[in-house]
Amino acid sequence: MKKTGILNRHLAGALAELGHGDGVLVCDAGMPIPDGPRVVDLAFRAGVPTFAEVLEGLLEELVVEGATAADEVREANQEASALLEGHFPSLDLVPHERLKELSAGARLVVRTGEARPYANVLLRCGVFF
């Protein structure tokens, strides 16, 4: 049994399959999930687990070369906005409708229990060397 890192077997396995350039959508409980990407649904109850908890855990395990979020997050969810801008100084911001379109190309979707609006980010995997 693993003793550190992500313990959820479905999520740990999905992360191990990612490669350079693959997209990972980390989303709130309300984000529409497109057909196509593998989905690991971590939502348990409204707010559990939070977007921040899941994002922090993923960033400990992934190399991320870029991130895209909805421009609306700045006004509608300042806590998520600050979290994203803190982790990604070159954060790409697009309209929410565009983020939903882009999410169809993700390889993996990780759904959180977050119940605040626009807590979504599309991560682009990098390489460790």
Low-confidence stretches: none
How many beta strands in the DSSP annotation? 6
Q: Helix segment count?
A: 5
Rg, Cα atoms, Å = 13 Å
Order of helices and strands: HEEHEHHEHEE
Euclidean distance between termini CA atoms: 28 Å
Which structural class matches the secondary elements?
alpha/beta
Strand count, sense and closure of the main sheet?
A: 6 strands, mixed
Strand fraction equals 15-25%
Q: Walk across the major sheet and give the strand order.
A: 2-5-1-6-3-4
The general outline is globular
Q: What is the averaged pLDDT score?
A: 97
Helix content: 25-40%
Polypeptide structure, described:
- This protein is α/β, with parallel strands linked by helices and 129 residues long.
- Helix content is 32%, strand content 22%.
- It has 5 helices and 6 strands.
- The protein has helices at residues 9-16, 51-61, 73-76, 78-87, 96-103; strands at residues 23-27, 38-41, 64-70, 92-94, 108-111, 121-125.
- The protein has a 6-stranded mixed β-sheet.
- The N and C termini lie far apart (28 Å).
Topology:
Layout: H1 9-16, E1 23-27, E2 38-41, H2 51-61, E3 64-70, H3 73-76, H4 78-87, E4 92-94, H5 96-103, E5 108-111, E6 121-125
Parallel strand pairs: 1-5, 2-5, 3-4
Antiparallel strand pairs: 1-6, 3-6
Keywords:
129 residues
Quickly describe the structure.
The chain is of the alpha/beta class and 129 residues long.
